[in-house]
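Thread amino acids onto this structure.
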């Protein structure tokens, strides 16, 4: 079991980073690869889940151990595999997901990539009492408080949710307004929240 990797970012792709650990490049799939430092800048630690299946061994990585713990809780739910769990974490910040589970906010959960009503109900049933110490339990996150914002016809449907998740990562309104001005003409009508976040993070990462 690989618990974490420490090294420098060799390069960043839409779905993963390649981490150079003493000359060995590890491909690590992440919710938001562009949150990691630029190529070769700093030595970083990525907390990993080593997923083994018949045809492949995959690494899923996270900037904090708490996010890794939430990922592992999510994949315990029937119907949620590693890829769907990554989509959940990239589609809404972890505190927002935890708050929605604690508040039984099915409307919010079903806006996350790959989550239908039955899976949202299973998430609440299976995880509501298992998320102590992971944050978000007592706060009703703004992105779950008013799902009607997602229906604003003046913007891409998933952008308000993606924007709030990016703010939770530390980006300012000014930075996000600037990115939106560049991003809005490049989007497809069916772009989901995780896709919007990855495209926005790529622009933020590029400066």
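Threaded sequence (207 positions):
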């Amino acid at each position: 079991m690989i618990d974490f990797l420490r090294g420098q970012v060799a390069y960043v792709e839409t779905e993963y980073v390649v981490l150079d650990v003493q000359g060995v490049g590890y491909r690590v799939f992440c919710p938001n690869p562009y949150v990691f430092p630029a190529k070769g800048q700093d030595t970083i630690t990525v907390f990993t889940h080593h997923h083994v299946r018949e045809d492949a061994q995959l690494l899923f990585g996270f900037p904090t151990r708490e996010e890794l713990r939430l990922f592992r809780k999510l994949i315990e739910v029937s119907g949620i595999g590693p890829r769907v769990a990554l989509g959940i974490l990239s589609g809404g910040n972890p505190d927002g997901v935890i708050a929605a589970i604690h508040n039984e906010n099915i409307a919010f959960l079903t806006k996350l990539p790959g989550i239908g009503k039955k899976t949202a109900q299973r998430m609440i049933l299976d995880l509501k009492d298992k998320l102590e110490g992971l944050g978000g339990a007592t706060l009703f996150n703004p992105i779950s408080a008013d799902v009607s914002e997602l229906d604003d016809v003046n913007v891409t449907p998933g952008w308000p949710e993606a924007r709030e998740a990016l703010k939770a990562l530390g980006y300012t309104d000014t930075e996000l307004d600037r990115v939106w001005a560049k991003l809005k003409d490049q989007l497809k009508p069916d772009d989901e929240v995780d896709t919007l976040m990855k495209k926005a993070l790529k622009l933020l990462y590029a400066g």
